[in-house]
Amino acid sequence: MSVYRTSEAQVDAKAALATLHAAVDAGVTFLDTADVYGHGGNEQLVGRLLADRRGEVTVATKFGITGDLMARRRQARGDRAYVLECADASLTRLATDRIDLYYLHRPDPAVPIEETVGAMAELVRAGKVAHLGLCEVTAAELRRACAVHPIAAVQSEWSVWSRDVEANVVPAAAELGIGFVPYSPLGRGFLAGTVTASSLDQDDLRRTLMPRYHDHNLPANLAAVAGIAAVAAAAGATQAQVSLAWLIGKGAEFGLPVVPVVSTRFPARVAENLASVAVRLSPEQLGALDRIADAVSGSRSRDLQWVSAGRE
After folding, report:
1. Among the options 4, 37, 102, 183, which is catalytic?
2. Which of 80, 82, 156, 234 has the most CB atoms in a 10 Å sphere around its CB?
3. Which domains does the chain have, with CATH numbers?
4. Where are the alpha helices (DSSP H) in the chain?
5. Which residues lie in coiled coils (predicted)?
6. Is 102 one of the annotated active-site residues of the chain?
7. Strand partners, 124
């Protein structure tokens, strides 16, 4: 399945819509968004695409983060009333009568996950949602959720340099027959070779929210991912393509479907990313990529409770 994650970046709406159409024209069948991206504006943008092409795509969206996703004041919320309220608001913005895959964006530490998933199950019974998903859950949280209602997909960060989910969450998903949807599979540009020490402004939010982008970690991390370029050259592919191919290979290794979601604003990048499905990596190349995570400096989130690794 081809996937395109609509970008939360501030872009010209006309250009963004053109990129969405180009992605679907290229064979993308799965769009990923959330109510917090652009404070609802991203869902509205996707809704404009759906007005003409609803039958061509599967749409996933998310709820559960209040405040600003990229700011210090973000929080998780998962009480029943909020679940039902958010679903109706997303349906309106998307201008559709059903959400194909509805994710809890983050578990609410103040609300048992059984309560949140129970409310999400009400949406399935009402015909407003087809399938349920969870983001950044631990293996234990996933099992508890599955006892309430079937879970179709887990979305968490997973990439060449972020592999903590392989310890517990990925094996649990494989055991339960749940698909895995890695976000930031290109390390927010780092693994694709588009991030350098000089390209990160001092006020770049990645520096604020993600320790591995801090000045004292950048040199080690730039050295760690340099091996991706060597693998890409040997494979006749780009760094982005081999990073995505590695993830697909990991899915086969763990025995579960893996569908990376990639953010971009440019049609050329969509085409580049789609071509990763044809990249074949040798065992030696996969091994070289496997070793990169061992040399990475800094955690993937300033607040480890915000991601599953901090709660496992």
Report:
1. 37
2. 156
3. 1-151 (3.20.20.100)
4. 13-25, 41-53, 80-94, 113-125, 139-146, 169-176, 205-209, 218-235, 239-254, 267-274, 283-290
5. none
6. no
7. none
